[in-house]
Give the backbone structure.
Amino acid sequence: MSKKDDMSIISLLARSKKRISVLKSLEKEDKIPSKISKDIHDNSNHVSKYLKTLKEAELVECLNEDDKRYRFYSITDKGKYYLDKVEKDYND
């Protein structure tokens, strides 16, 4: 991964504490969006947008993409790496 890509992902996370909260919620166990929503105290529509962005960045993955109503999400190794990096180096 290039330094530019690295900084792009760090910036994506640093700009939104909610995205970081989604990753933290998934650190403990795989979850459906409604459970993540309760964990981070945000509505499901917002959580779906956070998950879409995190999925595009390959920080989370959907474990059962074909299931339209009860999708489980998991943090990827890449997501764990960047969550740790942002918490250590960019948390203010």
Q: What stands out?
A: Residues 31 and 72 are 5 Å apart (CA to CA). Helices lie at 3-14, 17-28, 33-40, 44-56, 77-89. The chain has one domain: 3-89.
